[in-house]
Amino acid sequence: MNLGQELKGLVRNVGDLVDSIAGIRAHVETGMGSLPVAAGKLEKVTGETESATQHLMDVLDGLNANDKEAAEILSKMASLPGSGAEMGAILGKLSEMVDKNQAAHMRMFEILQFQDLTAQQINHVNSLLEKIELELNAILGAFGETGGSAITAGKAFDESATYLRAPQAQAEVDSLIRDIKKGRA
Predict the structure, then answer these.
(1) Domains of the chain: which residue ranges?
(2) How open is the CA angle 169-170-171, to the nearest 5 degrees?
(3) pLDDT tens for each residue of 88-99
(4) C-alpha angle 26/30/35, rounded to 5°?
(5) Is the CATH number of domain 3-184 1.10.3470?
(6) Residues 56-81: pLDDT tens digits?
(7) What Cα–Cα distance (Å) separates residue 148 from each residue in 125, 138, 159, 163?
(8) Which residues contact 120 (CB under 8 A, 6 or more apart)?
(9) Are 134 and 19 in contact (CB under 8 A)?
(10) What is the pTM of this model?
(11) CA dihedral of residues 67, 70, 75, 81 (deg, nearest 10)
């Protein structure tokens, strides 16, 4: 056994190991730089979705107010003297249309729940990114460096939130909406 060759082989192996560690370190540092960008993009998506949803809900509120006003006008017209059967039929059809519009607007409010569910899922992804960041920081710590924390923590979420299950969980809201509709008719 040649001790010199063994030592040269060991030094080569250590050199290769150091090169591998340096490569891993570079990948970890690159990943650490990407995490805040990804988290920021997800937060932007959540904010934009919330904003668009709020605008849609404002429009729906306006349409619901119009429906209520139209129903009141139709009710007044039906009680006017001289309203014959033909006028009653026309007013009845218009009243049905208003009711259908109210139901459609309420359904649209229900559908807009997707935004909250989307936000829940995005917050879950952010929490996963935070976990990855912590793990990468631990790896950097092994190299004697600290990466800090670039992702904001503390957002609440339901990781299993899904629109497909929402109708089952919305029985109470549906009941409330039916009560509101009855009050507006």
Answers:
(1) 3-184
(2) 100
(3) 888 889 999 999
(4) 145
(5) no
(6) 999 999 999 999 999 999 888 888 88
(7) 19, 10, 26, 36
(8) 157, 158, 159, 161
(9) no
(10) 0.56
(11) -170
